[in-house]
Structure formats: C-alpha cells, structure tokens
C-alpha cells in the first residue's frame, strides 16, 4: 500500500536550483570505488576491507591491543557494519546503547548483544537511565548516547569508533542542509572521518545503500531490529527519506554532498595555511586575528571553536557581523579591538554555569581541569573568573578578556585563575586548566570523494 503524505510531504519543487544538473541523474548509476552507490547487492567483505585501509591508520589487530569500537543499535545498518567489520579484523568492541525510551528497547538491546556474540563480536551494553521524554528528545538522546560511548571508548582504550551512517543518510542530510540554506561546508554533509578530542569517528558506509546493507545481512542469514521511529512521518528526516526515494533523487543529493566535501577539503587546506600565517591562538581560549578580520569562512570556523559550538554559525550571521565593522557578539563569542588588533574571545554571557571541581572535569566545553584530588575539597567549583580582578593580576590583559577565563572558587571566593598565574594561597599553585575545545577551527575530518569521471568516484578525499 502506498504511503500517504497528506500534510507532511516534502515538496520536491523546494529543492534549490543549484542542485540541478548534477551527475547521477538518469543513465548509468553513480559508482563509488567501482561499485554502484545505490546497488541492492550485498557488500563484499573484501571491498569493505579495502575501503577501511584507506581510512586508517589502525591499531594492531592483536590480543592485548586496544580494540576498534563500533556503535551498534541493532538495526540493519549497524548490524551489517558489525558483520563486515568482523571479516576485516578480530579485535573489535561493539557498543550497544539502551535509551530506555520505548518499553521494548531493553529487550532489543539484549537481543542485539546476543546476535553480536553469535557473530563473534565482543559487545558491551550501555543503559541510559536519566533520559526523559519531552522537547528535543532525539537530540538529547543522541548527545547522551555519544557521551556514554566515548566514555566506554576511553575505558577500553579505543581511539576509533565506527558508525553505521550510509549513502541514503548522506543524501538525506545533504537535502536537509540544502533546504535549510547551509553554507558550502554544511552541504558536505557527514564526513568519512570526524575528529573529536577523545575519539576518531569513522563512517565507512557512506558509499553503500541502506538496501545493500540489509541484503548483506539476508545473504548471511542474519536478522535485525526495525525501529518504528524510522517510519514516523512526523520526523523531517523520515519525510525527506520517502521523498528522495519516490522521486529518484538519492543519487543527485549524494553527489551534491561528495562534490561539496571535496571542495571543503580544498578550502580547509587553504584556511589552515592562512590561519598559520595570520592568527595567534592563546591557551586562554582566545584568538588574536591581527589588524584585519579574516574572511567570513575562516571567521566562522574560529567562532565555532572559541564558542565551543557543535556547528558553525549561519553564514548570513557571520556576514552581518563583518559588515557591521566586526564589533559585536555571535554564537557565544565576542569580537573586540585591543591595541590596534582584533581578538575573538568568549562572551561572558555565553559561558557555562559553574560545575563541581574534580580532576578531569570539563568546564564551558573547552577547559579541562588538572589538579590533585586531595586539593579539591567539598564545595570547590569551577566557574568564570568574572570581573573585579586587579589590573596587576590581569597582567595587562583587558578585564573583558579575563572575565570569561576559568577560575576555581571556594566558599564564594575566587581562589585561583591559573591562566593568569594567580592564586590566593600557595595551596592552589599546582592547579591548571588545559584549553581543549571540542572542535578545531579547520581540518575536522575527511569529506567527499574524488571524482575521476562524471559518475565515477574514488577515494575519500584525504
């Protein structure tokens, strides 16, 4: 029976004109590494293994070495990833997360662990107990899931985490970002590799269709779990998925993402060169930009990093900031002029709330506390230094800059601002904060493919 879209269907006519005329429309299928991207044929394990070799380096596949981790929900994509990965190497660790948001989720998670064990893939079950239904539930669940998986990776010594995003996901993401007016970096959609401070996220299936992965499991005689939310037309991604399928546009938007990704890699190399020549990064968490502001694309990446944002600000907002002469705030950051130079600093109004102090705690998404456990007595917390620091303590830096620095507080009193080399007593002298933003300014990962012919792609672009 045909699906009914009344009131929820995505209109194909809304697709931006810039997506028209891309390769992959009509004629021969688009191919990646000599295989049709949207093929319905099972994925050969040797093809998968050869692709993984291009996404390395990888640790030793030997007992006693840290394993490569996999995120496995139990659905067709991630379970096929586990099956293929097991034929690539033995030293693996599958991470299965039970959100607890559906009555059957616990049983499905346990069943997935059993299926992984039957595939000879070691698995660890992670149960989330503090998620509640309500606004932005999907985003909150995703954030909690990744946080716990990263924690599990740290405990097991894993530096790589494989994810099961595939070619249909990539096309859907490109459509959604295109309709949202994303800039050229956003149109690159998901990267083959994304670097985070703690783990490298690798998506080896971006050139493989959803159907091919399920056919891979069928050929192996394996079953998977179907999440009913994947059919819920209230979700934008589900509506986009059906619209792409019904109108034969998956190839077109996959090509859009891969072409945009290759262009992004070229821009990022140029931006990295420009940053090295013109900008000064301070351990205090701010950036000296020189006498002139960088171009908007570079400034956008800087704002993302200094503001500890998951995504860069809207291109139009960055353009307005530059047009207004630079002075102003955006995405938790502030442009300030000092000694005839521009600086990008953290906006005090945007910093995180105070947190209890403990070794390794992260404050404001950017600063990691290093301190002896014995020193962090009950009641010590990390928060913004705020105003009121004497000029001598500030070592000449403007009060506006120093107000957003991390400080230790105890009994309502500021006791240490390590970046300024100040502490109230010698007891706090060994405390310091490491500036470790969640994302770099550029070089976040590997995006796109090399196009060697109108419809033939190879590589990820390195």
Quickly list its features.
single chain; 462 residues; alpha+beta; Rossmann fold; Chorismate Mutase Domain, subunit A; 3 domains; seven-stranded mixed sheet; 12 helices; 32% helix; 19% strand; disordered N terminus; tRNA(Ile)-lysidine synthase; nucleotide-binding; tRNA_Ile_lys_synt_N
Question: Topology, pairings included?
Answer:
Blueprint: E1 31-32, E2 35-36, H1 45-53, E3 68-71, H2 76-86, E4 92-98, H3 105-118, E5 123-127, H4 137-156, E6 160-162, H5 167-179, H6 184-187, E7 193-195, E8 200-202, H7 210-219, H8 236-247, H9 250-278, E9 280-281, E10 287-290, H10 296-306, H11 315-323, E11 328-330, E12 333-338, E13 341-346, E14 355-356, E15 362-363, E16 367-370, E17 381-384, H12 399-402, E18 406-410, E19 413-417, E20 422-423, E21 432-435, E22 445-446, E23 450-453, E24 456-458
Parallel strand pairs: 1-24, 3-4, 3-6, 4-5, 6-8
Antiparallel strand pairs: 1-2, 7-8, 7-22, 9-10, 10-13, 11-12, 12-13, 14-17, 15-16, 16-21, 17-18, 18-19, 19-20, 23-24
Helix pairs in contact: 2-7, 5-8, 5-9, 10-11
Number of helices, where a helix is a run of at least 4 consecutive DSSP H or I residues: 12
CATH homologous superfamily grouping of the largest domain: HUPs
**Per the principal axes of the C-alpha atoms, what is the gross shape?**
globular
Residues in β-strands, percent: 15-25%
Q: Examine the secondary-structure arrangement and name the CATH architecture of the largest domain.
A: 3-Layer(aba) Sandwich
Rg, alpha carbons:
24 Å
For this structure, the CATH topology of the largest domain is Rossmann fold
Adjacency order of strands in the biggest sheet:
5-4-3-6-8-7-22
Give the helix level as a range of percent.
25-40%
Number of domains: 3
Poorly predicted runs of 5 or more residues: 1-25
